[in-house]
Amino acid sequence: MRSPHADPSRGLFETLLVLDGEPVEVDAHLERLTASVAAVFGAELPSDAREAIAAGARGVGRGRLRLTVVPRAGSRVGTTVSTDEIGAGHLFPPAGQGVALRSVVVPGGLGAHKWADRSVFGAIDAATGEVPLLLDENGDVLEVSRGNVFCAGPDWLATPAADGRILPGIARRRALEAAHASGIEVREERLSLADLLAADEVFLTNSVRGVEPVRSVDDRDVPVQEGTNRHPGTGTSGVGGAIANALRRRWLRAPVPQGEPAVVAAGGRRGGRRER
């Protein structure tokens, strides 16, 4: 299985959040990577991948870990692990740090695998600080270079369907679980730029950043819910705030802010421990 927009020889990768030396959602990431390695390279993920992640995460306080898988001779693959610390503002960034999106057409999308070759994005994010927003040639919103896209109204949440054109993100999955658990109407459907601009809020989900507010799309402002991603206990507003709280509780074991309903996502793991 190949993508016309990525060189498979550069491999596949997963990026995990690390907190206090523990990788977050490691089982889900390994499950997805195992499936991708089999589909793309016809190979098995090396059996020591989990141990390599654990060793790489050791000693990292708050950071990201990247596990890259590259093809070797025959039906074999090799792995490398790299880590770096991240600032507090990278994890659940507040509304004031909302990102600007810049659309780029990628016919058919990048597909359901996380390619190490990111050249299709050009220098958009590096040159301008904007985050590339992938559109199909018919104008369908697909994903961004570093996560999945959501838009929301007062009691609903919408995101592009995982129809083979996008990477089905781990944080995306947890956001949908949290929305279902809280009674928020969930729509997995075709979205356009007009849909994003007409929504009450737009946000991204990402396995390292969590929930990330969007402030503009192609230089057009979108509403930002000011409560989104405030620290627990100070209150949140909007669907994005509810999803952010749910992911905080899952990943950071953060308490439910006073006066807000508990939104419990099913069966989370941080490192190897089952969360309650």
What's the story with the biggest beta sheet?
9 strands, mixed
The pLDDT mean sits at 86
CATH superfamily heading of the largest domain? D-amino Acid Aminotransferase, subunit A, domain 2
Straight-line distance between termini: 38 Å
| Uncertain stretches | 229-236, 258-276
The CATH topology of the largest domain is D-amino Acid Aminotransferase, Chain A, domain 2
- Helix segment tally: 6
Radius of gyration using CA atoms only? 18 Å
Topology order in helix (H) and strand (E) letters: EEHHEEEHEEEEHEHEEEHEE
Please indicate the percent range of residues in DSSP E strands (runs of 2 or more): 25-35%
Helix percentage range: 10-25%
Q: What oligomerization state is this entry in? A: single chain
Helix-and-strand structural type? alpha+beta
**What gross morphology would you assign?**
globular
| Count of distinct structural domains | 2
Annotation, overall tally of beta strands: 15
CATH architecture type of the largest domain: Alpha-Beta Barrel
Given this structure, which CATH class of the largest domain is correct?
Alpha Beta
Q: Which helices and strands occur, and which strands form pairs?
A:
Elements: E1 12-19, E2 22-23, H1 26-41, H2 49-57, E3 62-71, E4 77-85, E5 99-105, H3 124-128, E6 131-135, E7 141-144, E8 148-152, E9 156-159, H4 170-181, E10 185-188, H5 193-198, E11 201-206, E12 210-217, E13 220-221, H6 238-251, E14 269-270, E15 273-274
Parallel strand pairs: 5-6, 5-12, 9-10
Antiparallel strand pairs: 1-2, 1-3, 3-4, 6-7, 8-9, 8-11, 11-12, 12-13, 14-15
